[in-house]
From TrEMBL:
Organism of derivation: Candidatus Nomurabacteria bacterium RIFCSPHIGHO2_02_FULL_41_18
Protein family: Belongs to the class-I aminoacyl-tRNA synthetase family.
Keyword Transmembrane: no
Single GO BP term: tyrosyl-tRNA aminoacylation
Keywords attached to this entry: Aminoacyl-tRNA synthetase, ATP-binding, Ligase, Nucleotide-binding, Protein biosynthesis
InterPro entries cross-referenced by the UniProt entry: aa-tRNA-synth_Ic, Rossmann-like_a/b/a_fold, S4_RNA-bd_sf, Tyr-tRNA-ligase, Tyr-tRNA-ligase_bac-type
Name recorded for this polypeptide: Tyrosine--tRNA ligase
One GO cellular component, as annotated: cytosol
């Protein structure tokens, strides 16, 4: 595939949804040269779903792919065992091989909704990291000092609060950095909270006698509650959500995030997004603009036909007065039984009432547009329920 040097496309690539680029002029010059670059993105399977927040970096990877560059996707089946400490104020639990395998089950199925995996180099970092000898690992860790690691923002905060930092957490940036050596990366993409790890890649490449990669960090996407989108907080919009569920969740996004979602999560041209921003500033009803946002996002992951149907379903269900905009909200935990949550939160009086309603098809999942028929229904993501004829409950899953 021929590499495009279209200056306008390159400038959009370097600016749309990017937080920081190191080194910007070097990368721009390389993109304009027509040389095919190797663009690296690593994803750890720490959970089974890829949500819109994680898809931001994948979409940026696709932008490089569309210009004709070689994209290299690294599935961190080895690094997931340790867990990335980026932006974490406590140690991640180490994952067992069985859990990682389970999380990986639908990963490529999800990823191919964003990038063309037939033209992508896919690597699993256990291929090289699991084979490292003690001496090879020692050589790698020699790239960094304890003082360097201790200056990392979240580590520094933990030290100041008297919280533990485990030595294994110091290993993670070095291991991610070695991935760049293994695949000979010219550029690495990551979230803004990944900056320390991405720069570690440059350090490791230099120590191993390779040229240092350029770095691009993408903007962080907030979830439905305004906090960073995170599976552990249950505020995610998964790219595997049904079209109806995805549409409903996007409509729940806070109004001040509409333009950011258009920029990071849709293919809408920037000039059109600017026009929508002007409309919002002129006090056009944000709900009308958000309807377009939900449609554009659902169209990417489910196609135009299902996007139109989800829009029609939302209008029929929500805008025609069947569901109030304000409703009861409770919290639940992932894999917790729905019946237990409803009883514990006093939405229902007892387990017997739960079973009676289930048997009578009296509990309706509005996102999936179907009744709950399983008395042992587990929570996997946020859900909006209609209980009986008039009661509506939103459950946020953490």
């Amino acid at each position: 595939m021929k590499v495009s040097t279209d200056e306008s496309k390159i400038d959009e690539l370097l600016t749309r949804g990017t937080q920081d680029i190191f080194i910007r002029e070097h990368l721009r010059k390389a993109l304009l040269s027509g040389e095919q670059l190797r663009i690296k993105l690593g994803i750890d399977p720490t959970g089974p779903d890829i949500h819109l927040g994680r898809a931001v970096a994948l979409r940026k990877l696709k932008s490089f792919q569309d210009l004709g560059h070689k994209i290299v996707l690294i599935i961190g089946d080895f690094t997931a065992k340790i867990g990335d400490p980026s932006d974490k104020l406590e140690k991640r639990p180490m994952l067992a091989d069985k859990q990682i395998k389970k999380n990986l089950k639908d990963y490529l199925k999800q990823i191919k909704k964003v990038i063309d995996i037939s033209k992508c180099e896919i690597q699993y970092n256990s291929k090289w990291l699991a084979k490292m000898s003690y001496l090879e690992m020692a050589r790698l860790l020699e790239c960094f000092t304890v003082q360097q690691m201790s200056k990392r923002r979240n580590f520094k905060e933990r030290l100041e609060k008297g919280k533990d930092i485990f030595v294994v957490e110091f290993m993670y940036p070095a291991l991610q950095g070695y991935d760049s050596v293994a695949v000979k990366a010219d550029v690495e993409i990551g979230g803004f909270d990944q900056l320390f790890n991405l720069k570690a890649g440059r350090t490791v490449q230099k120590r191993y006698g390779e040229k240092e990669q350029d770095i691009m960090t993408v903007s962080m996407l907030e979830g439905t509650d305004g906090r960073k989108m995170s599976s552990s907080w249950g505020n995610v919009i998964s790219i595997l959500d049904t079209a109806d569920n995805m549409f409903i969740k996007v409509m729940a996004v806070k109004d001040n995030l509409i333009i950011k979602y258009f920029t990071l999560c849709t293919d809408l041209p920037l000039f059109e997004i600017s026009e929508l921003k002007n409309k919002l500033e002129k006090k056009v009803n944000p709900r009308d603009i958000k309807m377009k946002l939900a449609y554009e996002i659902v169209k990417i992951y489910h196609g135009e036909k299902k996007a139109k149907l989800a829009e029609a379903n939302f209008i029929n269900t929500f805008q025609k007065g069947e569901i109030p905009e304000e409703m009861e909200e409770i919290a639940g935990k992932r894999e917790e039984l729905l019946g237990d949550v409803l009883v514990k939160s006093k939405v229902l009086k007892s387990k017997s009432e739960w079973r009676r309603l289930v048997n009578a098809s009296g509990i309706h999942d509005l996102g999936n547009r179907q009744s709950i028929t399983d008395p042992y229904f587990p929570l996997t993501s946020d859900i909006i329920l209609k209980i009986g004829k008039k009661r509506f409950v939103k459950i946020s899953v953490k």
